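ok trying again, last paste got cut off:
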Amino acid sequence: MAIKVIVELQAKPGRREELSRVLESLIATSGPGQDFLGSTRYGVLDDPDVLVEIADWESAEAREAHMKEAAATGAYAPLLELLAAPFRATVIGQLP
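nice, full thing came through this time. structure:
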């Protein structure tokens, strides 16, 4: 079942644009594939340091496998260095 993931990223003060560029670069290199279907990024209007990504995945299992691999390889290390707090991810699926 296809899912969406809403990811809230709190950048270090004044670094949201840099965080966005690093995220774009990571997506470009590991980009949309068979399981990751793409994403859209948004700025939070009343908080200039928050970035929200809404990502589309083929399944929750595919996303989980990707996240485990990324953690094992350190793929997200450049992104994590720009965060002021741990990211928050909410996985959602369409109701029947």
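cool. The chain has a mean pLDDT of 93. The longest strand covers residues 3-10.
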